[in-house]
């Protein structure tokens, strides 16, 4: 089920797609000079009816609107072994679609889990190894420079969320506070995103001092973001139940289920697709017929 920790970075990228390029550069990966960063569809399905959906996709374009590099962003609170199989599909599918180099950037707010997510994925073909580029807390810059905070408010918000409760948290939050008068109304609302994710003890202390901007989130952006997270959580919660029911149904029918097929069902978040598979299962003689 999606969480606030999962959604906040995706929300910031929605408002400024180039944030993904900035984060990629923070990991030491060269980023080509580009004119525009464009959000793409997150649906990474091939011609077969398989459900592959990443968290966010941004393509960097040159002055002629030609793609230079595509960046697939995945947010992982913890290591998921199923991603070992699906991440290569994301890259290959989108690379074939946009016909440009494509990289995988994984954001993991926990350092220990970030190390697990960085595990090399051996494709089986000689010398073909995918090494996920993982952005952990240590890679997110600690922004204490007011000029950078004003120039990159989305990165400032991310820095505040990741480092706000750490050793340099107060410096970061002070800069966030000082930058707000220089930002647009929408950019100022990022402060409420920060509040929604900081530990309560930190928020209480700031409110007791001087940061009036850290009131409970009431602006439209945050309200929409919270509502979206709740709605998506309910939707995917229902889908999770449908997936479990389908697996139970298949077991009762005695249809052999491969690990790949089981993972595909468990990862599917589309209720209509799951219902379609359930209907097909009633007359299927193999798992391939369920997906066909």
Any overview of this molecule?
By secondary structure, the chain is α/β, with parallel strands linked by helices. The protein folds into three domains: 4-139, no CATH class; 146-217, no CATH class; 222-291, no CATH class. It contains 14 helices and seven strands. The strands form two sheets. A five-stranded mixed β-sheet has the order 1-2-3-4-7, sandwiched between helices. A two-stranded antiparallel ribbon has the order 5-6. Helix 6 runs parallel beside helix 9 (190-197), helix 11 (220-253) runs antiparallel to helix 12 and helix 11 (220-253) runs parallel beside helix 13. The longest helix has 34 residues, at 220-253. The protein is globular and about 65 Å long. The two termini are 27 Å apart. 31% of the residues are buried. Residues 216-222 have low confidence and may be disordered.
What share of the residues lie within helices?
A: 40-55%
Indicate the low-confidence ranges by residue numbers: 216-222
Percentage of residues in DSSP E strands: 5-15%
What is the C-alpha radius of gyration, as a whole number of Å?
Answer: 21 Å
Mean pLDDT, nearest integer?
81
**Topology pattern, helix = H, strand = E:** HHEEEHEHEEEHHHHHHHHHH
- Based on Cα principal axes, name the global outline: globular
Helix-and-strand structural type: alpha/beta
Total number of distinct structural domains: 3
Query: Helical element count?
Result: 14
Major sheet: order of its strands? Answer: 1-2-3-4-7
Distance between the termini: 27 Å
Largest sheet: 5 strands, mixed
Count of extended strands: 7
């Amino acid at each position: 089920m999606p969480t606030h920790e999962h959604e906040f970075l995706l929300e910031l990228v929605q408002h400024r797609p180039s944030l993904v390029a900035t984060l990629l550069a923070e990991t030491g990966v060269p980023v080509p000079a580009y004119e525009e960063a464009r959000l793409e569809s997150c649906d990474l399905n091939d011609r077969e009816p398989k459900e592959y959906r990443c968290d966010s996709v941004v393509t960097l374009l040159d002055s002629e609107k030609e793609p230079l590099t595509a960046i697939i962003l995945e947010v992982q609170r913890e290591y998921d072994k199923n991603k070992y199989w699906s991440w290569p599909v994301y890259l290959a599918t989108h690379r074939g679609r946009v016909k440009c180099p494509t990289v995988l950037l994984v954001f993991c707010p926990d350092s220990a889990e970030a190390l697990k997510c960085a595990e090399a994925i051996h494709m089986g073909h000689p010398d073909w190894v995918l090494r996920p580029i993982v952005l952990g807390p240590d890679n997110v810059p600690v922004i204490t420079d007011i000029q950078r905070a004003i120039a990159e408010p989305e990165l400032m918000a991310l820095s505040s969320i990741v480092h706000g409760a750490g050793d340099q948290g107060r410096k970061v939050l002070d800069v966030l506070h000082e930058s707000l008068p220089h930002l647009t109304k929408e950019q100022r609302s990022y402060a409420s995103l920060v509040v929604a994710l900081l530990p309560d003890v930190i928020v209480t202390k700031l409110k007791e001092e001087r940061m009036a901007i850290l009131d409970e989130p009431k602006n439209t952006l945050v309200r929409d973001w919270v509502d979206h997270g709740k709605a998506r959580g309910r939707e995917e919660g229902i889908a999770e139940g449908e997936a479990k029911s389908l697996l139970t149904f298949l077991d009762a029918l005695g249809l052999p289920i491969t690990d790949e097929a089981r993972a595909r069902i468990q990862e599917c978040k589309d209720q209509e697709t799951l219902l379609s598979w359930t209907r097909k299962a009633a007359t299927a003689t193999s798992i391939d017929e369920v997906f066909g």
